[in-house]
Amino acid sequence: MTYRVGIDIGGTFTDFALLKDGDVVVEKTLSTPHDNSLAVMAGLEKLAAHESRSLAEFLSEVEAIIHGTTIADNTLIQMNGAVTGLLTTEGFRDEIELRRGFKEDIWDVRLESPNFIVPRRRRLTVPERILFDGSIYRELDEEAARKAIRRLKLQNVESVAISLIFSFANPVHERRLAELVEEEMPGVEVSLSCEVLPRAPEFDRTGTTAVNAYIGPCVTGYLDRLVERLEEAGYARQLLIMQSSGGVMTLDYLRGSAIRILASGPAGGVVGAARVAEAKDAPDLLCVDMGGTSYDVSVVIDASAPADVGWNWHHRNLIGVPMINVETLGAGGGSICAARNGAVEVGPESAGADPGPICYGRGGKRPTVTDAILLLGILSEKSQFAGGSFDLDRQGVAEAFQEQLGDPLGCSAEEAAFDCWRVVNANMTQAVRRTTAGKGIDPKSLTMLAYGGNGPVFAAIQAEELGIEKVLIPRSSPTFSALGTLAAKPSIDEERAYLVSADAADSDRLQDLWRELDERAESYFLAAGFKRDDLTALYQINLRYPGQNFALTVDVKEVKGGRDLSFVDDAMFAGVIEGFHSEHEASYGHRRVDEVPEITGARIQASVDVTRPLFGAGSEAEQQAATPTGTRQANLGRGFEETRIYKGADLRPGHSIDGPGIIEETFTTIVVYPGWKALLDDAGDYVLSRNG
Q: CA 484, CA 417: separation in Å to the nearest integer?
């Protein structure tokens, strides 16, 4: 027996998905924010016990552990990263503050400037200059560089970002500057823009490198602790980590590029969603993931979730590495409910795992969304919560709602809880509208895929407000992002700059760049235990029209197995240029055939296939009405009324439920609102649709 384990650390719960011979086992444990590796080890202990093995025996049979986490995101949200300094070319000190004059919301006159992760006093310049073609116009002034580094040392800088002009064309000055930093500040972490993001524009590259330096020590420190604990417990393989691009890779690969794991937790869910879209013949999905701390929204089109390269704004920072597009809102089960200025506000502040909602009985004093849905009867203290790991407690919940919301607003505790339900639902629905509108998509044309511990609680009512007719809820929805990491391929996505007009490109130069990228990818895959014969390399070129800031990527050739660059010749460029014209027209609605595009770089996407979880097609079985296990008073939008309760463990394919009804699964609750019905398909997944 061999196992594969997917892990997703959230703000409240840490989720696990165990894949064994095609079967999936899910598990949850409360997160441990002070040291997330403790929650990981506790969850692995639970999985080992489920398989009647000691932890050491279990880990010896684990083929792969794949880890998605929000630790990098939380570092940016809480602004508790490393004390970071920036060294850049003389004259470019304020580039990351000017931000190209960009403001995320041009209509919000009250939007304050973000908190810069590198304040001006720690942004220092050095005399040097490299030109766009890589030639050295001015040599690096090493004495001035040493003085700047010593100034950073006096400010107790823990991590240094180095981003020099046109270093992507010639990194010699950056690499020498890194050597000087190591001499003057031994042991400090260094991030080089020529490694983190070796391409233009300058703001993108500098900002991305600064974020990498800021989160790097925290991310690698945590992952090193986790690897140490895993090795001590008996795990002998490399830990694989989910990337924001939708692939996974080893810690050794990510050590200098911690920024690649931003939003890696939500990315796992989107990768899994693309597999569901393919299996269920529902190619266009609206993916909504509501956990304990956040609400993540993404869209899958044609059963694909490609990573966006370039203009990715994340926590008010521009991230230039490939990222699956996910919009995150501070709305989860632990989101704090409060009365401010005569109105109800929900989130973004969260009670997290410690102390958590009041009903967890762990010392929480402020009402949360979970407390609200407990008061509304959607949850019950009599039902098992989080797999029975602990019981919910109503004591103090009603009192807190009355004192903190009801009295200021002049209503009862139950009315205040319902207002919180309405507000958090409205916040999430608006996030969906922003995401779909930004992509020019009508949500009515999509099928909703709801997951996360709290996603199925609100899914149908959100779908109704958005005009969506159908909702899919996987049986594995409570830990779907963890399961999604098991659907991700080990992959590397990198590029190298090459600035030249497409009609003047040198095929030998392009071949050299691709060979460099290919050899780098191969070395990491071999170190991770994969064979070259299993590697698939997709060779790509980035192009743009003259005068444009951003490039589009054109696929050139996919090669599986051994390295074969024989397709690279001068005749190849005609097809590449036509491919760019077509891609530009598909993306922007026009092409400029009279203009010769510029090549900005060579790119490679390398990956290997692995055993992945199967997602059932879920054809509908013969329908029959399910039998409720009881009833309770619940408010599902039209006041308290007697509502039928169903146990998920008792339901079989073909069982149908007409709303209003509540289905209690091991780690989640599915609400079938009035006017909706639920059907369990033969893959064991729930399909919600409108009645009539």
A: 33
